[in-house]
Amino acid sequence: MENTGPFAGPDAFSGATGLLFEQAMAQTRMAVCLTDPRQKDDPIVFCNRAFENLTGYGSDEIIGRNCRFLQGPHTDQKQVSKIREALKNQSVAVVELLNYRKDGSSFWNALHLGPIYDENGELKYFFGSQWDVSEIHLAQAEERNAKAMAREVSHRLKNVFAVIGAIVNITGRSMDAPEVSRKINQRVQALGRSYEPTLDDAFLGTIEVGQAVRAVLAPYDPEGGRIIYLGNGLRTEPNAISAIGLTLHELATNSIKYGALSNDTGTVEVEWRQDNDRHHRGSLVVCWRERGGPPVDGAPDEDNGTGFRIVDTLLDHLDGTLERKWEAEGLQAEIHFPIGRAG
């Protein structure tokens, strides 16, 4: 290893121990250096090949220098202070700081440093390992930017829904059709609620189903406990959320008029899962189960209303389906989407 051999100076390991150390340091991909706090300015007395590759310096440019030579104009001095404190207290420290290579390029360095003592318990060296975590920092920065953009989109989306609502209200009043405009606005608001809590992580390309389900249904169970949620972190593409939101809105309003939410004791279970049964293999399924409502005698008139026709049309566009059955205990419904839309 030329002059990256175990140590420069009289305190070098000797014999088999030194050879093993040298071979181990030569093979590891982690950049490693040792400094000697007994010498003036705690210079580097050993570095391995990975340290040279990481920094761009040769061993002859490294040995004898304090590690601060890797710092630059944008190195965070708070992190540097943590290093100084660890050296002063002979303690272990892990910090991330911006360092600079010989060619002037920067990299994020995950530095682990700690003391090494001799057989008498006397401080002999400080050990430092360096790991280039620049890609992790870049990914985190991209994630922060994506979330900031998602928040801006969320803000603008709320404004769009508000404008749509105002237009619907004005149109309804001008046509003397306030009930029609009210129903349209309820559906617009349901769409808005389905997207609002999920936009922050929409940059991932998918949206968590449970967040949308809870947001859409929250107004129909203001005290909590009437609607029971059964699901996990299953995700689906954003386009499917609009269908889920509108469908759950129609089911909830139907339940308030005719079903389990029309009295003080009924409950609704909402479950979402990935279904692999033989009838719907490869589907995202959202189940709606009502219990404790008034007696059911066939499908109520609302079954053939405008709301469910809108839902059926939207689901058909997304290759989905809505199956409804009126059992003795209440409405049982299932929404199905192709598995390509789940994740």
Can you lay out the helices and strands and say which pair or pack?
Elements: H1 15-27, E1 31-35, E2 44-47, H2 49-55, H3 59-62, H4 77-89, E3 93-100, E4 106-117, E5 123-132, H5 134-174, H6 178-195, E6 207-208, H7 209-217, E7 227-230, E8 235-236, H8 238-258, E9 267-275, E10 283-291, H9 306-317, E11 321-327, E12 330-338
Parallel strand pairs: 7-9
Antiparallel strand pairs: 1-2, 1-5, 3-4, 4-5, 6-8, 9-10, 10-12, 11-12
Helix pairs in contact: 5-6, 6-7, 6-8, 7-8, 8-9
Features:
343 residues, Beta-Lactamase, Heat Shock Protein 90, 2 domains, 5-stranded antiparallel β-sheet, disordered N terminus
Short description:
A hairpin with a 7-residue loop joins strand 9 and strand 10 (283-291). The radius of gyration is 32 Å and the shape is elongated. The chain contains 9 helices and 12 strands.
